[in-house]
Amino acid sequence: MVDIHECAVVLVQEPDHAAAAANPDPSSISAHAWRPFEDAAAAVVGRIQPSVSSEDRRAAVVHYVQRLIRCSVGCEVTSYSLLFPHAPIL
């Protein structure tokens, strides 16, 4: 029989210099280097953030589904959202 401690491997994490270079301290990055990433983030937020027209389309879809269910099934459906304030749960 073999003692489990004789075969145990001790893992020691050595500093990974490549990982440190890939994840620099954010305060060490110049404002000039941040600019492309800030622009990309603003573009993403601009595309996913609700706009007046997208809210109007969403409201129209909710109204249509409510009418469809009311007319075909005879049930009243109200929109309600607990987790996502801009996404109604029917």
From TrEMBL:
InterPro entries: PAP/OAS1-rel. This is Uncharacterized protein. It comes from Aegilops tauschii subsp. strangulata (Goatgrass).
